[in-house]
Structure formats: structure tokens, C-alpha cells
Design a protein that fits this description.
The complex is a heterodimer of chains A (557) and B (197).
Chain A lengths: L6 E6 L5 E6 L11 E8 L2 E16 L13 H7 L9 E13 L4 E3 L10 E4 L2 H7 L10 E7 L8 E5 H6 L2 E4 L6 H13 L6 E6 L28 E5 L6 E2 L5 H7 L5 H16 L7 H19 L4 H15 L4 E2 L6 H4 L4 E6 L5 H23 L15 E5 L2 H4 L7 H16 L1 E7 L7 H5 L3 E4 L5 H10 L5 H4 L9 E6 L6 E5 L13 H8 L2 H11 L10 H5 L4
Parallel strand pairs in A: 10-17, 10-18, 11-15, 11-16, 12-15, 13-14, 16-17
Antiparallel strand pairs in A: 1-2, 1-7, 2-5, 3-4, 3-7, 4-5, 5-6, 8-9, 8-20, 18-19, 19-20
Helix pairs in contact in A: 6-7, 6-8, 7-8, 10-12
Chain B lengths: L2 E8 L4 E6 L19 E5 L7 E12 L13 H7 L1 H5 L2 E13 L2 E5 L11 E4 L2 H8 E2 L2 E2 L4 H6 L5 H15 L4 H17 L4
Antiparallel strand pairs in B: 1-2, 1-7, 2-5, 3-4, 3-7, 4-5, 5-6, 8-9
Helix pairs in contact in B: 5-6
The chains are: A alpha/beta (557), B alpha+beta (197).
Chain lengths: 557, 197
């Protein structure tokens, strides 16, 4: 098909990888973020040099005075004074060069060649963008189709991620609240659980938003018909009461973190007692056992040094009781990694009834266990049947990541998270971080995520954090951040060949992260059924007479 | 249609000089209002019947060769009327006409210029209101193709002339009041306010 040019090159831009073009653009095709190309001969072959429009400036417009009366169009005035040409405006567009797509390297190569003045510029065809922007084709093994290119009609140019990349080199979803980050995460999980991937996914869900993933097995789109396995994804939603942390998986720094502001004596007692419970034959110690050890050490001190440690021991034991003596901590029970992590299964740990500190402990201990298990499995130190034998890669999605790796760095989960982000790739442990406050997220943690999904962010501190942490996105594409609408995302990093503005596709399972409708809830309080129910609840057996509630207080509603 | 005068020369392809008929030169001598500044006129231009150049009176000059001969005369005024009547007729009213378009058979062909020249001696007649209206009507839209031409002439009278043209058109084309109003506002601002800075 012969394509008409949409503009003519004017010359080089301000930077070496920019050029400018002039176009009347009467149909307004050349939007910011749109892809255009020019043809050039590189090493004896005609190449289509792709670029993205980053700025649009007018070079010819109607005079302001033509716009004084909104009832008269400037066209009409122009025609009246003898200007009858259809071209009414002229724009200069700045294009940032991506380069030509090299099939050998599967990447864009910048030819370092600006178009000469007057060279025709073409709007990139859908086929060209489909074949070059994404690393995978929809439905291909290891692909995740999360939506389509924003500048084209829905579905015309699918945005397909390379799952292998972001499950090994990690990813981050950054967006302000209400811009659709949980929705996008849901779409990603759906794609991971599709027959093309059959991923092993663990979601740590502090707000209980991912409960709707229980529909996964019943969603026909994920059913691989006709295959030997007759694959359907499985989902396992764990409510907070079912989440257990075995005390023996805690390390001494974890205890120090859980029991802040301990005195020196307390620390000394705890440190020694912890070493003893760790060294005992049965490593599955309980709080009671730890307390016995603490009191033993206190007694020994009294006998050896004549110093009374009993008050310190009492205080320490009380604090241990209040912190470790209740769920999720348990002496014997733990989450079974072999049950929790299976290919084709999405396990969701709902942490919504658990305080932030305990959430951090659960996350840290779980990540540590998974990392260790993957490490040992990869090194051949475990075999089939071992509790720590996980012979497949694992992808962990962490909601509200700024709680688990805050910028201050005082959360106990920060350390293991950094370790996983730095070395998880070697052992097949990928992490996806979701945060609405990148400014509050540890900068190292964010910069270790090689694929980024950035949605609407208005806060300037957050914008600057993104700009400094996200190497792959240029400043011009980040300028789009405040202008993005709900369900639109910048996708950049190693899972794509070039940064793109994406319209996120519709979820196949129901979205669970909707905001509460407060006026609706308030009105429900005052509907007839609710009023009658409250009357029944407040009523006592003898509603009349001297002992009746109504006789004392009147009718309560 | 009142015939005002005849073309006696041109200064350029668009700038013609018309001598206004004096008493006795035509059956119906024009009155001053017939050739007032801003009057729309037409004159035959082209080989076909009805082809005409359309113009606008943009200047008026009084021609008087006697001016400057203050010396004593041998003949008195009454004697001159008898012995040398040609002398008396040499005073004249000359009109500057800017040709801004062409009409054929009552329909506007071009707006802004007339490609065909009007000959010497071509009678200049006043354009009737219907003709002015037809000249400015381009398929239902107001057409002032000469606007930029008038604006480009560096004559202090030109903006006022254009404003009076717009006023006249507003009366003739009430359906174009908004467009004409917008143009007049722009022009007034440009020529009255901006120049007063």
C-alpha cells in the first residue's frame, strides 16, 4: 500500500537524536507520542527510521483578533478577506529518534542520520509498530498483551510485553491513587496466568484487593482447550487468619525490629536466649521456650555476677508475649512453599487485617524463604520432596511497596527486598513492585526494576523520583505523566523495544480495588430494612413497663 | 445607473483616473453624491457585452489649469466666454478609481483585481446596490478579496475608506452582519487604537 507523507523534514533538532518536521496536519494525526518515520539508506538497505513526536509548536495560526468573537469562526473571516485555501494552520513537530528496527539484534538501532530538509515524513503504519515496538506477538509463549497503543484506535497496535524479561529483571507499577494501578496489576496477573505463560505467581495484597482473582479458574479465556494438560489456572486466596509465620524463620535482626527501644540489658538477654533456641535440637521454638531461656540466662547472671536481671527478663517476656504470642506467629505452623508456589497457580496473601509491622515481617520472612529455596534448588542442594525444593521460577507481586522498602530504609523487609532485586535474577525470583508514592520508595529498589509501568503521577516529588530512577524513559515521555488519564500507562524498560503510551485493556476477571461509595453506604443506613433491623437489635424482651428499654430511653433508632 | 464620467488615464493596472462629466457634457449631469469617496463604480473592460471592471472611488482631485496665472488678463471673464470658451472648460473634477475586481454578466469573476484593462474613454457608471451585493457574494459567503490590497496602500485615508465600505456592506448584506462586524472591530482597533499608542 502506498502511503502519503504527512509532513516534510525541516532539519535537525536541539539534540543530536531529534529532528523537526513541518506539517499542516489537517486531520490532527500527529499527536504527541505518535510514531513517524522517514526513509534512508543505511549500509545499502532502505530503512524506515522510526521516531516519536515529542513536541508540537504552531508556526502559522490565525491572528488572535480573528478569535475575538466565538460565534464567528476564523475560517469565515479568513474567507471573507480573500483567504480561501483549506490549509489554515502549520505546525513544527519535534521528533525523538528511535532508529530502524534491526531483525538481527531485535532492537532499534539509531543510524545517527538526521533527515535532510524536505525529506518526506510518513505516519508509521500499524503493521510496522506491531512488529517493532513489542518484543513478542500476542498469544506467543512468554507474551503478555496488556493493552494497545494509546495514539491508535483500540486494539490496532497491541502492546505485548516480554514476560521473560520482567519476571527476571523485575518490574514496577507506579501511579497515584485511583489511576488504575491495581487494575493494571490484575491485567498483568491475568496474562501471567494465561496458557501462554502458566506462571507461578504470589501476590502480597495489603488491602485485600485481589480476592476477585478467585474467578481465574472459571474464566474461559484462560482455559487451554485440547491440550494434554487441559490447563486452567488455579488461584488460592489466603485470608489473614490462615497466614502463619513460623517463629524459627525469624532472625535476630527481625526480633530487634519487632521489639524497638529495648534497653541494653534486654538486648543482651534476647541475643543470648535467641542463640540458645536456635542451637537447640528442635529448631521449631515457641515464645514460651524463648522466655524460659531468657529467664534461665537472667538467673545465671544473678548467680554468677550477683546482678538482678529478673525485672529486665519480666519486661522482655511481656513484650515478647504481646508481639509474638499471637497470630500470625506460630511455633509449628508455616506457609508451605510447595503448596503456595506452583506453576499455573496465583496465590494471594491478603494482609488487610494485619498491622504494618507484621505485614513487613510476613513479607520479609516469606521472601527470605523463597529466595533461599530457589537458591538451594538452583545449586542442587535440595531434591524432590524437600520443603525448600522449588524447581521453577517464582514471580512475587508486592502491593504498596513503599511500606516494605521505604525511602528511610528502616523496614525489616528492605534488606531482603534489595537482595532479591539485585540477585533474584540468577535464581529465578522476580519481583513486581506496586506503589502510589515512588517518592517514599527506596530509590535503589525502584532503580533495580528494569520494566516500569508509570501511570498518572501529579506530585512533583514523585515525578522527580521517577525521572531519576527510570533510566529507560526520556524526559519528554515523562512530561506526559500529569496528562495521563485513568487506565493509560507509560510502559518502558527491558520488556519493550521502545517506551510507549499504552491504553490498558479490559480485565477478564472482576476488578476488586474499587473505592467505597460513601454516600451510597450512608443512605443504606437509612433505608427501611436497615432501620427495622436496628430496631430489632436494640429491642429488649419487655419493650413496655418500668424495665422496658423504650420506657427508659424512648424508641431508639 | 448614473454615468459619472469617463476614464482619461491610468497610473497603474489597478489605479485609474476618471474625469467627472461637467454641465452640458451629458444629459444627466452627476451630482457630487454620485462620486463621493467610497462609491462603487464599474466600467466596461473586456470584449464581451457586460464585462466590466469594478472599482472604488478612493481619491478626488479638482483640476484647474488657471490656478497660478495671477497676472493681469487682457480679456475679462465675459469676453472669454465669447472668444475662447475652451479655456473655461479645462477645470475638472478627477476621480481616483481603484479597480478591485471583475464582473461578467452581473456576476463576480475575480475579487482583488481585474485582469483586463479598461480603455481610455470608457464610461464610468455608479454600481447599483444589487451589483455591490452581487460583487461581494461568493456562494453565500462574504467575499472581500480586495481587503489586503486596500490595507497595503499607504494612504492615511485608506482605513477610513475601508471602514466606510464595511458600513455600507452591512446595510446591503444584513445576513453578514456578524462577519462584517468582526472585521470592522479588528480594523478599528488596528487603525484607531494601535496607531494612537
Amino acid at each position: 500500500m502506498h502511503t502519503e507523507p504527512v509532513g516534510a523534514a525541516k532539519g535537525p533538532g536541539e539534540t543530536p537524536h531529534e529532528y523537526t518536521l513541518i506539517s499542516a496536519d489537517p486531520e490532527q494525526k500527529l499527536k504527541n507520542g505518535e510514531f513517524v518515520y522517514y526513509k534512508a539508506h543505511v549500509e545499502g538497505r532502505e530503512r524506515r527510521i522510526l521516531g516519536r513526536i515529542t513536541r508540537r509548536e504552531p508556526v502559522k495560526l490565525f491572528p488572535d483578533s480573528f478569535l475575538a468573537d466565538p460565534r464567528i469562526s476564523p475560517d469565515e473571516l479568513a474567507r471573507a478577506v480573500g483567504y480561501t485555501h483549506p490549509e489554515r494552520e502549520l505546525f513544527q513537530l519535534t521528533v525523538t529518534l528511535l532508529g530502524y528496527y534491526d531483525e538481527r539484534f531485535k532492537a532499534f538501532i539509531n543510524p545517527r542520520l538526521s533527515p535532510s530538509c524536505g525529506w518526506p515524513i510518513y505516519l508509521a503504519e500499524n503493521e510496522l509498530l506491531r512488529d517493532t515496538l513489542s518484543k513478542k506477538l500476542p498469544g506467543e509463549r512468554g507474551s503478555a498483551c496488556i493493552g494497545s497503543l494509546l495514539s491508535r484506535r483500540e486494539g490496532e497496535v497491541p502492546v505485548v510485553l516480554d514476560v521473560r524479561e520482567f519476571t527476571s529483571t523485575h518490574m514496577a507499577i507506579i501511579a497515584s491513587t485511583g489511576s488504575g494501578k491495581s487494575y493494571l496489576a490484575g491485567v498483568l496477573i491475568e496474562e501471567l496466568m494465561s496458557p501462554a505463560n502458566k506462571a507461578c505467581v504470589l501476590v502480597l495484597d495489603p488491602h485485600g484487593e485481589y480476592g476477585t482473582l478467585k474467578e481465574l479458574p472459571n474464566t474461559e479465556a484462560f482455559h487451554e482447550r485440547g491440550s494434554l494438560s487441559d490447563y486452567r489456572p488455579r488461584s488460592w486466596i489466603l485470608r489473614p487468619e490462615r497466614i502463619k509465620v513460623k517463629l524459627s524463620t525469624l532472625e535476630y535482626p527481625d526480633l530487634r525490629y519487632l521489639l524497638p527501644t529495648m534497653t541494653e540489658r534486654m538486648e543482651e538477654l534476647l541475643s543470648r536466649a535467641f542463640t540458645r533456641v536456635q542451637n537447640q535440637e528442635n529448631r521449631a521454638w515457641s515464645v514460651g521456650e524463648l522466655e524460659v531461656k531468657i529467664r534461665n540466662i537472667a538467673d545465671e547472671r544473678r548467680d554468677d555476677q550477683g546482678v538482678d536481671y529478673s525485672m529486665t527478663a519480666d519486661g522482655l517476656c511481656r513484650r515478647l508475649d504481646s508481639m509474638l504470642g499471637k497470630p500470625p506467629f506460630s511455633a509449628s505452623e508455616d506457609l508451605d512453599l510447595r503448596e503456595l508456589l506452583k506453576p499455573g497457580q496465583c496465590s494471594v496473601l491478603q494482609l488487610d487485617d494485619i498491622d504494618e509491622k507484621r505485614q513487613q515481617v510476613i513479607t520479609a520472612t516469606l521472601l527470605r524463604r523463597i529466595y533461599r529455596a530457589r537458591q538451594r534448588t538452583a545449586r542442587g542442594e535440595t531434591s524432590q520432596g524437600d520443603a525448600e525444593h522449588i524447581p521453577y521460577p517464582v514471580f512475587v507481586l508486592l502491593e504498596e511497596a513503599h511500606h516494605f522498602a521505604p525511602a528511610g530504609g528502616d523496614a525489616m523487609s528492605t534488606g531482603i527486598l534489595k537482595q532479591v532485586l539485585a540477585e533474584g535474577r540468577k535464581f529465578g525470583l522476580g519481583v513486581g513492585l506496586i506503589s502510589q508514592r515512588p517518592g517514599k520508595l527506596d530509590a535503589d529498589v525502584l532503580s533495580q526494576c528494569m520494566t516500569q509501568f508509570i501511570m498518572k503521577v501529579v506530585n512533583p516529588i514523585d515525578q522527580n523520583t521517577i525521572a531519576s530512577a527510570v533510566e529507560s524513559a526520556s524526559r519528554d515521555i515523562l512530561d506526559e505523566l500529569p496528562a495521563l488519564s485513568k487506565g493509560q500507562a507509560i510502559v518502558t524498560g527491558s520488556s519493550m523495544n521502545a517506551p510507549v503510551l499504552c491504553r490498558v485493556r479490559e480485565r477478564l476477571t472482576e476488578h476488586g480495588g474499587v473505592s467505597m461509595d460513601a454516600p451510597d453506604e450512608w443512605n443504606r443506613y437509612w433505608n427501611g430494612d436497615a432501620i427495622r433491623e436496628r430496631e430489632r437489635e436494640y429491642a429488649v424482651l419487655h419493650t413496655s413497663g418500668p424495665r422496658g428499654r423504650r420506657s427508659l430511653y424512648g424508641s431508639e433508632r | 445607473m448614473t454615468t459619472i464620467g469617463k476614464i482619461i488615464k491610468s497610473n497603474s493596472h489597478i489605479d485609474y483616473v476618471c474625469q467627472v462629466y461637467g454641465p452640458g457634457e451629458t444629459a444627466h449631469a452627476p451630482v457630487p453624491e454620485d462620486h463621493a469617496l467610497g462609491t462603487w463604480v464599474q466600467m466596461p473592460a473586456g470584449s464581451e457585452q457586460g464585462d466590466a471592471a469594478v472599482g472604488l472611488v478612493y481619491d478626488t482631485q479638482l483640476y484647474n489649469p488657471d490656478y497660478g496665472t495671477f497676472g493681469p488678463r487682457l480679456s475679462s471673464q465675459s469676453q472669454l466666454e465669447v472668444f475662447s470658451p475652451d479655456y473655461l472648460n479645462e477645470t475638472a473634477v478627477l476621480l481616483g478609481i481603484l479597480v478591485v475586481g471583475q464582473m461578467r454578466g452581473g456576476r463576480r469573476m475575480t475579487s482583488g483585481y481585474c485582469p483586463v484593462v479598461a480603455p481610455i474613454g470608457a464610461p464610468v457608471t455608479r454600481l447599483a446596490p444589487e451589483g455591490v451585493r452581487a460583487f461581494h457574494n461568493g456562494a453565500g459567503q462574504l467575499e472581500l478579496g480586495y481587503y489586503s490590497l486596500l490595507m497595503s496602500i499607504t494612504d492615511p485615508i485608506m482605513p477610513s475608506l475601508l471602514l466606510s465600505v464595511l458600513d455600507g456592506l452591512e446595510d446591503l448584506m444584513p445576513e453578514q452582519t456578524r462577519t462584517i462586524g468582526a472585521l470592522r472591530t479588528n480594523l478599528s482597533w488596528k487603525t484607531r487604537v494601535e496607531l494612537a499608542r
